[in-house]
Amino acid sequence: MVTTDVGAALPLCARCKEQEGVLDLRSDLICRICFTTFIASKAIKRLEVLQRETRGAKLPLRSQRYLVALSRGPSSTALLHILNENVRRQRERNQRVKFELVVVFVDVDVDAGAEQKGTSQPTASDPAPPAPTNGTAGTVDTTTSRPSSDPTSTSTDVFTTHFPELTIRKAPLSSILSSPAIDWSLLPAQNTSLPPSQRLADFFSRLPSASARADVSRLLIRHTLFAAAAEHDCAVILLGYNTTSLAELTLSEAAKGRGFGIPWFVNDGAFPLPRAVDIAISNSEVGIDSVSKDLASLQTNDSISVGTASTSIHIYSPLREIFRKEILLYLSLVSSSSGPLTDLFPSSSPHAANGGTDRSAGAVVSHRDLSLDDVVRRFFVDVEASYPSVVANVVRTTGKLNRMAPIIPGTRTDTDMGVVGQQCRLCGVGLDLFGDERWKGEIGEADTTTSSAVVEDGNVQGGKRNRLCYGCERSVKGR
User: Fold this and answer.
1) How many domains does the chain divide into?
2) DSSP-assigned beta bridge partners for residue 454
3) Which terminus of the chain, N or C, has less C-beta within 10 A?
4) Residue among 395, 421, 427 nearest 324 (CA)
5) Which of 346, 352, 311, 363 is nearest to 330 (CA)?
6) Residue-number span of the structural domain to which 74 is assigned
7) 287: CATH
8) What is the pLDDT of residue 448?
9) What percent of the chain has pLDDT over 70?
10) 55 falls in which pLDDT band (50, 70, 90)?
11) pLDDT for 414-440, tens place per residue?
């Protein structure tokens, strides 16, 4: 927000040249209307790219169906408002509605009693680039949000009030605990005699650290989202990541040991379903040639038109060109039919809502309870405020990285880097056996349970037990 002396004339908006410029947008003084238009147009332009890449040669017979991941955070709320307003304007102009929204909130339903016993409850922040679900997995239990008589309820009731045109579905995180998309034999054992919420809390209590709990929680939330996408016939997932949170994700994933998969988690495009390669190879009714063609296309081209519903799902972050501080300012300027959207975030700093940045980021009671994601997030609070171009460059550089897909036997090229028919059984990214084994050797951790060999066609063939990538193995085993 720009401050001026009392009685001084404000300069005109640098865009419309009509209203007074009261907001600082990337070195330009603009008015409130132009600011909200700028934010919305940035997101809609990303949607137009998505639509061009997914519609194919002919117009679809029905509107595309997008699953919007709502975390109840500022970014996903701003995305939901922009999309809802765009659909409303299309209907007012009697235009063909290009997309249909399916809003899903993943309820991290950890039992409160288990928390009091020392179990850390993972938090659901604005969604990160996902770990996909198995296309053949069963559906999750999604329910429609209903109003509650408790005004302090942490449910989605207040969002239903602000967005009455939309149906907000809730999917409990515990519903993914039996999903075949994840190899649960590689994760801590579950106490199946407990109710779902207590079972989830007990599962998280068995993970070695706060960083591990936050990491595995994020991956399970993504599995839940994609199971919901399969249930509601959505081929596209829209996540509320902004420039700042994508930069945070890039650094945190590299620190966790998932540098090989950063392009898959951060960049927009088609994402191969986990274990789709293994399922295709073991299924005699599915030709390996067709699956090889799909995955080879995913490896060399982010164009969605080359993927199929059986092998990939499409992940996009429409807010990827907008900073977090701009999202907060946008929310302070727009309203729904039920009032200002800032009412949804009463704890937000007024300074942050006016374009500044809240450097407090919450008090740290104990560094033992601080996850790696929290550390990176606190670091970028200051970086975004002082050096926003650095934040943007992190995301742009990540966009230039190649996305290496899992390899099907017989499709190897000189540029292939992966493992034949294998993906990480937790995050879904293709295994990088060369990188994993080199890293383990350098730090003196020879994995006796891992066997790999170079077969005749030059591919790396992983042993049966090497089914987690380096990052997931460290989160699960803590070593």
Assistant:
1) 1
2) 460
3) C
4) 395
5) 352
6) 42-407
7) 3.40.50.620
8) 42
9) 64
10) confident
11) 444 444 457 888 998 877 766 666 666
- First-to-last alpha carbon distance for the chain, in angstroms, is 47
Phi/psi for 378 (5° steps) reads: -65, -35
Quote the tokens at residue 67.
């699953």
Q: Is residue 477 part of a domain?
A: no
DSSP codes of every residue in 246-306: HHHHHHHHHHHT-GGGHHHHHS-EEEEPTTHHHHHHH-TTS-HHHHHHHHHHHHH---GGG
Within 10 angstroms of residue 255's Cβ, the number of other Cβ atoms is 15
User: Above 80 in pLDDT, residue 74?
Assistant: yes
What is the SS3 assignment for 472?
Answer: helix
430 Cβ contact partners less than 8 Å away, ≥ 6 residues apart:
260, 261, 272, 404, 405, 406, 407, 418, 419, 422, 423, 424
Q: Residue 294: which of 70, 139, 60, 303 has the closest Cα?
A: 303
In whole angstroms, what is the distance from residue 410 CA to residue 231 CA?
A: 33
Q: What type of residue sits at position 182?
A: I
* Calpha distance 163→158 (Å, rounded): 9
Q: Which residue has the tokens 């509320």?
A: 240
Cβ proximity of 159 and 70 under 8 Å: yes
> Which pair of tokens denotes residue 28?
């330009």
Prediction pTM value: 0.79
Spatial neighbors of 143 by CB under 8 A, at least 6 apart, are 169, 170
pLDDT at res. 442? 55
Question: Which residues lie below 8 Å from residue 3, measured CB to CB, with a gap of 6+?
Answer: none
